[in-house]
């Protein structure tokens, strides 16, 4: 059962991690010596890169390959972008020490698009990796 649903489990686990990390308070957490400008944008990019990457395989696994690759890519990227925007709105509306940020939503969206492009590049065409899951 686990092997049959590995991408669903990975995707859902990742989205729970992203949600928890995005809505939890990290006030009082000190990172001495770690002062990299715009590091949070790289984190947002990475969160949604992985989300869309895993989303493609989750959808393929869930649909039994009944949905075309093009539709799977579109659904995965639109879901990741919408989820990122919703999380930013929730940060603005529900948290006291976090703020929703348009630039975070932009980084989320760029990460989601890059994740889809990575899947296309790695698993399509003459690649040594095969699309089959």
From TrEMBL:
Alphabetical keyword list: Membrane, Transmembrane, Transmembrane helix
Bilayer-spanning residue ranges: 42-60, 72-93, 105-123
Keyword Lipid metabolism belongs to the record: no
Name the UniProt record assigns to this protein: VanZ family protein
Listed PANTHER family: DOMAIN PROTEIN, PUTATIVE (AFU_ORTHOLOGUE AFUA_3G10980)-RELATED
InterPro entries: VanZ-like (IPR006976)
Domain VanZ-like: 30-122
